[in-house]
């Protein structure tokens, strides 16, 4: 079915009525507001939404777009707002954020989604329990609060993971943590891709004026935005810790490489003069000094040992060893 949730809510009477798809054309009572939640994966959704009266055509087009990012626009007291929430479905990646699209007027809320999200289900549960938001403005505030609240555990997990990786990089020099750091930074990038424009959309709500958002509700939006800013700062801190961990790994690898090259250089320096003398005296030509003496080989070995000892003393004196 195209319609997932449909409610006509009477705030003063603290009651609600379920709206069926065949009743969408009915007029909304003056003492009530209506919430219609549609499934965009249903092919009938587009036709159903376009059949509703009084909707801004440009807003409808934006509402039904295939790809979206967080934004907010106002026209003639109607608001189009697109938000994102973390994906908390079992087995899903939280950074694969789920879009919630809303077209809001003074007495009607039309929302769409392609995938389920817990924050929207929270609103439906509140309505079923008889604790529906008192107005359209309260509805939007409550939904935004749930979207931001649901992000808390994910942000704290990322912060803890970055701190743990940083600690392990310092303590464990044997393991290569580049894959863990790459996955963490990729997750942060994907989250910030949507959270930053979502911050801008929430800030814009505080500035724009509508007849159905009160000044008190705008103050609540300020608190919601502050919480979102805190999460973005947590992601920035986690990203910086990942950068520090990555630099530590690179510095350690460079240091290990330099140590190996230093050892090879020392070995080459020791054998360079020895190789010179063995090459010079090993040529098969007449005139080699004391070549006929039976002790010549012993003396030559002794000479090489003396040269080797002198090199060792020289290296120690210059603190090359």
UniProtKB/TrEMBL annotation:
Annotated PANTHER family = CORA FAMILY METAL ION TRANSPORTER (EUROFUNG), ZINC TRANSPORT PROTEIN ZNTB
- Give the UniProt subcellular location, in the record's own words: Cell membrane
Q: Does the keyword Ligase apply?
A: no
Indicate whether Zinc appears among the record's keywords: yes
Which InterPro entries does the UniProt record give?
CorA_cytoplasmic_dom, CorA_TM1_TM2, MgTranspt_CorA/ZnTranspt_ZntB
Per the record, the domain of life is: Bacteria
Membrane-topology annotation of the record: Multi-pass membrane protein
Say which family it is in.
Answer: Belongs to the CorA metal ion transporter (MIT) (TC 1.A.35) family.
Q: Name one GO molecular function term.
A: cobalt ion transmembrane transporter activity
Protein name as catalogued: Zinc transporter
Q: Which SUPFAM superfamilies match?
A: CorA soluble domain-like, Magnesium transport protein CorA, transmembrane region
Keywords in alphabetical order = Cell inner membrane, Cell membrane, Ion transport, Membrane, Transmembrane, Transmembrane helix, Transport, Zinc
**Which stretches are transmembrane?**
261-283, 295-315
Show the GO cellular component annotation of the record.
plasma membrane
Gene3D superfamilies in UniProt: CorA soluble domain-like, Magnesium transport protein CorA, transmembrane region
Q: Cross-referenced Pfam families, in alphabetical order? A: CorA (PF01544)
